[in-house]
Structures are given as C-alpha cells and as structure tokens.
C-alpha cells in the first residue's frame, strides 16, 4: 500500500512520468548517456557524469591496490604487475570508448576565429 502511494506521488509530480513506458524510456536514456566527453585539445576523454567519475576513481583505487600488492618484491612480480596494469588501463580505455564521444584529434573549437 505504501509503495503504491509513493509510486502515485512520484508519478503525479512528474519525476517518472505518467506511464511505466516513460520510466523505461528514462532507463534507456541513461544507458545511452555519454559518460566521457572528448577533450577540446588533443586526443582522449574526460569524465562528464558521475558514472564516468566512478569509473576513473575505481581505476585509481584498483591501481593503488596493485601497487600495494606488488611493491613488496618488484623483481619477482614485475611481469604480473605489468600485465595487470596493461589490462586495467585497456579496460579504462575500452569503457571510455564505448561510453564516450567519438574519439579523434581536436584542436579547439572550429567555429571560433
């Protein structure tokens, strides 16, 4: 009963919309949202949404954990460390590519004089 009342209140205020299909559209819209915008100068991306920032912070945390794990004996664990870093960085680039704007070399605004 309380859930139905809360659902009506949310629907009435227009936060979700007037039908279940509109809430499905919101979910689809958020799935298609760009998490990383293309840099204005050079090649690459930067996070533009909280999801993008979450990915970058997760990358940094896992990278710090890898450093803490492998720093005890660098000579012995150099190859596994490098493989882990390459995999982690490749994953970050893949996510940025899939959830970001089209990559390419940019040099500022083309419309500005």
Which terms summarize this structure?
single chain; mainly alpha; 2 domains; two-stranded antiparallel sheet; two-stranded antiparallel ribbon; disordered N terminus
Indicate the radius of gyration in whole angstroms.
21 Å
H-E string? HHEEEHHE
Indicate the proportion of strand residues. Answer: 5-15%
Question: Could you give the order of strands across the largest sheet?
Answer: 1-3
- Give the tally of structural domains: 2
> How many strand elements?
4
Estimate percent helicity: 55-70%
Would you tell me the overall average pLDDT? 77
Report the principal-axis shape: flat
Low-confidence stretches: 1-18
Helical/strand content category: mainly alpha
Distance from N terminus to C terminus (CA atoms, Å) equals: 61 Å
Number of helices: 4
- Largest beta-sheet characterization: 2 strands, antiparallel
Q: Summarize this, please?
A:
The protein contains four helices and four strands; from the N terminus they run H-H-E-E-E-H-H-E. With 113 residues, it is mainly alpha-helical.
Question: What would you note in describing this structure?
Answer:
The chain is mostly helical and 113 residues long. It folds into two domains: 1-32, no CATH class; 34-102, no CATH class. It contains four helices and four strands, in the order ααβββααβ. The strands form two sheets. It has a two-stranded antiparallel ribbon. A two-stranded antiparallel ribbon has the order 2-4. α3 (50-70) runs antiparallel to α4 (74-99). It is flat. Mean pLDDT is 77; it is low at 1-18.
């Amino acid at each position: 009963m309380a859930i139905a009342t809360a659902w009506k209140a949310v629907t009435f205020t227009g936060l979700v919309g007037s039908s279940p299909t509109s809430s499905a559209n919101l979910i689809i819209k958020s799935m298609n949202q760009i998490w990383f915008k293309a840099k204005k100068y050079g090649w690459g991306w930067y996070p533009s949404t909280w999801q993008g920032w979450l990915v970058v912070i997760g990358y940094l945390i896992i990278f710090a954990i890898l450093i803490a794990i492998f720093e005890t004996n660098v000579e012995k664990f150099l190859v596994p460390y490098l493989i882990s870093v390459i995999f982690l960085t490749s994953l970050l680039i893949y996510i940025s590519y899939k959830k970001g704007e089209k990559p390419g070399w940019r040099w500022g605004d083309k419309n500005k004089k």
